[in-house]
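User:
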Amino acid sequence: MTRIIVALLFTVVFIGCKSEEKKEDQNNTETPNILLITVDDMSQSSVGVYGNSVENITPNIDQLAKEGFRFEHAFVNYSICNPSRSTILTGLYAHNHGSFAENGIKPNVVPITRFLKEKGYQTGIMHKEFHYQPMESFAWDEVISNDSIQGSRVPKLFKKYAKKFMVSAKEKGKPFILVANTADPHRPFATRDKNKYPGGTGEPFEVTKLYDSSEVEMPPFLPNHPAIKYDEALYQTSVHRADEMVGAALEALEEAKLSSNTIVVFISDNGKAFPKAKHDCYVESNATPLILRWPEKIKKGTDTEHMVTSLDIFPTLLEYLGMEETPKFDGKSFKSIIDGEKQTDRNAVFSEYEYHTARSGEVLPYSSRSVQTKDFRYIVNFWADGKKSIEPVIRYSQAYEVVANSEEKNVEEFREFYFYRTPEELYNVKDDPACTQNLIDNPEYASEIKKLKALLLEELKRTNDPSAKAFEEGTPDAFARYIEKMTKKGKEIKEAQLHKPT
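Assistant: Predicted structure:
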């Protein structure tokens, strides 16, 4: 009898302890938290689970993919910092949210952070706060600035401050949304050769693994050159450290005992900082890793059928939160895809590019739009008149130096196209994802071009894109008038900038 009583008491205590443990693994609310982790300038192709051949380059991101749901065909809609990041948080194209450079979103635009703060969420951002302008529109309760976490390139500091924010929200009994931004693998890359980079930096360059040229492959979209390959090795070193930063944020979540009630979203803002990637409308510019995890709520798996974009993240999160009254979006929720349903209209994605900030400080239009299906990518370059060059907006670093100055024949051929482009481009991305063979003048693809242009025009009109009229008219004069209009607007944007780029 005594044994039975002891056994029952043990069972009650054990169940009670497990109950307390489960209770502790939340923030005293049924409402889920959101941890949005972004990496800076990381191409989709750089992630192990997306096919990077460098061994064990991103173990933490790969593990997150195993634990969550991964999209194979995910894209950002703009391939540079402010516009892309604002699209992620607003669900709007840049031409609708208004942040083309450092000028900030329009006053009537409601980012997810402000929307959720009004619903009782604690809002926070780690690093990159200067890329979300004006800051008051994003309604941050806590800003963990660049200085606090040493340039957001030190995993142990990233973990420390992320955990501190999470525990703070937990103690208040509030759900949180934390936008945790790494600086890696943005230039300057992690390297012991930091003096090679113009201007120098005070940022930490310590790494746990330094890759060399023998361990990486040449980017297939660039001309083969040893200096570019060396630059790629340094980039891959930064990719590995970015992965350690992702791991640090996830460890913070575990240690705060909030994993089970937190939706984790992982994404990059745009492709790597190399020619024909960042600042452009190619596959390498827009293809992004996209992974979501919410234990027992979001099933594990991979979608290889649908095409989704950063426009869709805000509406998807609100559907998970069960919120029916939402702001206006250009994107739409992909929750039903994760749930196993099909969305039959997910057969194309669109991207835009409007402005570069030149080395002179001018905000200059290099206006492009693109549409991609699983087979083809069509690009229109409103600025490409055969005379205008992209050279004035290049930020010179190793790969760009080679492209601009090498006298090797393969580089010269690449430079001629890269600097001036053509008004239209077409690529068979199924066979040529590096976008090396422009098929726009091949008559065999005339019907495909017509179909893609119709898709693009429909999207431009649907979202009130200011380039729609010029694109529909399709003449050099129409393109020139559009660039003239955007040049005037660029001057206004320069005057309105809230964070001055360096």
